[in-house]
Design a protein that fits this description.
Blueprint (H helix, E strand, L loop, with lengths): L2 H14 L2 H8 L3 H15 L4 E3 L4 E3 L1 H26 L6 E7 L1 H18 L3 E7 L6 H4 L3 E5 L9 E8 L1 E5 L1 H7 L13 E3 L9 E5 L2 E5 L3 E4 L3 H9 L4 E5 H10 L3 E2 L9 E7 L7 H21 L8 H5 L36
């Protein structure tokens, strides 16, 4: 029998734990599946599976062989897919999932430019602040904000980094005073997520090293867009992600505070089910997404990028004049702090 096919059959049997289920998945008879595994064992001169009337289990040799064979088959399929993909144009429905706030404020321009470039692909975007199983729910691509996805079948790739910014309205600061250090937040009403979603204690890094404070919430909300609205109404001091309030900071609606201190960064990544058999629509969208956020990072490193238009060109500073790519970077902290790294725990920011 074909050795490569026997290897594929063995992997399927091991994954499903049954000759019968493997036969169904491969559209083969149970006898043929059994023969493939038996021929493989005969070729190797060792037993790979322990068989009883009730269950199958891998032998020690079978466990080692399975791990190595899986890598061989993955590499082979990857090479074949790479060659085949060159002859396939992006087409069909592209299912994308992203957190609500990030999707509303930062994803639309990327999807719009991709749709213009690849008109035969129809983006289907879902916004959700919950754990998403990409494979089970049939998504092609997922955007993760400050979240880790642990799965052998999921591939993740860094897109960019956001920043948490302490801010308030000019009117609020005029009435209540301006905080100059993290401890000052204890005397101000704060706007934050509930503790179980990353609120409560805040860890700042600044001239005095690490400073931990537990601000008193004036109001809590599980959605940062709602917290932004509260902040714009002057209800207190808010701690919000840069991609959400970039235009507010640029226009002066919100004022950045505690410029000598910074909070952990927000890692933003892209996830997709597998490198194998990656459809052209997924591959091209990933490339497009990565290129977009690379331009974002480059733009954010330009000190002119986050300046209001009035400061750059002498014209009025309208928030909507600023490109989205100017709003993801750190608009509040000195340049020397821009390379510090860290993550936050919440997935709803």
């Amino acid at each position: 029998m074909n050795q490569l096919q026997s290897m594929r059959v063995f992997v399927k049997v091991a994954d499903l734990g049954s000759f019968v289920r493997a036969a169904g998945a491969l559209d083969l008879s149970t006898a043929v599946v059994t023969r493939h595994v038996a021929d493989l064992e005969a070729r190797l001169g060792t037993r790979l599976l322990n068989r009883t009337t009730r269950r199958l289990s891998l032998t020690e040799s079978g466990t080692t062989y399975l791990e190595r064979v899986r890598h061989i088959l993955d590499d082979l399929e990857g090479v074949e897919q790479m060659v085949v993909a060159r002859n396939h144009e992006p087409v069909g429905t592209l299912r994308i999932v992203a957190p609500v706030v990030f999707g509303l404020h930062s994803l639309a321009p990327v999807v719009q430019s991709y749709a213009e470039r690849y008109p035969d692909v129809m983006p289907d975007v879902t916004l959700a602040d919950r754990h998403v199983d990409l494979v089970e729910e049939g998504f092609d691509v997922g955007i993760l904000v400050a979240r880790q996805m642990r799965s052998a079948s999921i591939v993740t790739r860094r897109l960019t980094t956001g920043y948490m910014t302490v801010c308030a309205t000019p009117a609020y600061l005029q009435q209540h005073g301006t905080p100059t250090c993290p401890e000052d937040l204890l005397t101000h009403p704060c706007l934050s997520r509930p503790a179980e979603q990353g609120g409560d204690e805040k860890v700042f890094t600044g001239p005095r090293g690490e400073v931990r404070v537990r601000p008193t919430n004036a109001i809590a909300a599980n959605n940062t867009e709602m917290l932004r609205q509260f902040a714009l109404l002057g209800m207190g001091v808010a701690i919000l992600p840069s991609y959400l309030i970039g235009r507010d900071l640029a226009s002066g609606r919100l004022v950045p505070l505690l410029g000598d201190y910074h909070l952990p960064q927000i890692e933003i990544t892209i996830a997709y089910p597998s490198r194998l058999h990656l459809p052209a629509k997924v591959r091209t969208f990933i490339d497009h997404l990565v290129a977009h956020f690379q331009r974002t990072d480059d733009h954010a490193r330009d000190p002119r990028a986050t300046m209001p238009r009035r400061a750059v060109a002498g014209s009025p500073a309208y928030a909507d004049d600023l490109p989205v790519s100017a709003l993801l970077g750190d608009t509040t902290r000195p340049k020397r702090q821009a390379t510090r790294s860290g993550t936050v725990a919440s997935s709803t920011i």
